[in-house]
Amino acid sequence: MKPFIIAEIGCNHKGDMEIAKALILCAKYFCGVDAVKFQKRNNKELLTAEEYNAPHPNPINSYGKTYGEHREFLEFTVEQHKELKDFCESHDIIYSTSVWDLTSAKEIVSLNPEFVKIPSATNNNFKVLEYLCDNYEGDIHLSLGMTTKEEIDKIVQFFIDKKRNKSLVLYSCTSGYPVPYNDICLLEIKKLYDAYNNVVKAIGFSGHHIGIYPDIAAFTLGAAVIERHFTLNHNWKGTDHKASLEPQEMRELVEALTNVDNALAYKNVDLLDIEKVQRQKLKYKK
Hints:
Helix 1 (17-31) runs parallel beside helix 5, helix 1 (17-31) runs parallel beside helix 11 (247-263) and helix 10 (213-220) packs parallel to helix 11. The longest helix is centred in the last third of the chain and has 17 residues, at 247-263. Helix content is 42%, strand content 16%. It has 286 residues and is an alpha/beta fold. The chain contains twelve helices and eight strands. An eight-stranded parallel barrel has the order 1-2-3-4-5-6-7-8, surrounded by six helices.
């Protein structure tokens, strides 16, 4: 079965609702993905006063005088997220959002999306995980970047204890923007699949690399969900655009995964029809 493909718009909308909607339309009609995903943060809850008021570490990418102003500029309100969800539904594409803190989790749960994402940075915030397990009935997707094996076991056991493990999708992920090929570590997908595939709903892959080849390999290794950051232009201002796919690349990824899915099969007979003609012409005859 072809993997479920998510275009993560994240903050690549540059704080502009019209760009966000253009990204949705492009992801749906040109690229053919299954879902788009945004991000929701309560920046005062996530950042200390010192972090909030500090300058952006890479000023060329900043949309404000401080890191806090930068993050607020890129943040949509819950009402705007409701508008985006309604827009997605009107175009028959699934809306979702990563929630980075408890306040954001509560806000997005109020919209009842089909699934919610826990980013790698928040997967050890058990207050957020507990709130979602207790108050949200949809699937919970969770990235495992920057996470030890011991921490992964603890997270999975938490969902088992909550009887929500069959709602859980675990993503193999290396946190970096962009990630060089030698740090993608695709075989981590196989480790997750072998350890947890019968315990959780599915194994996924969240890639932050350049190009699409690792995503195809990820699918063959057991990733049933493929998530890639999505932008309209690699050269736009912001930290994620360089590690995102542009529309033509995302379209090629969807086509490649569809073709590989069709190719991943056993022969249902000894000789396929396509082979019979060639056998008649080419096979050695005694």
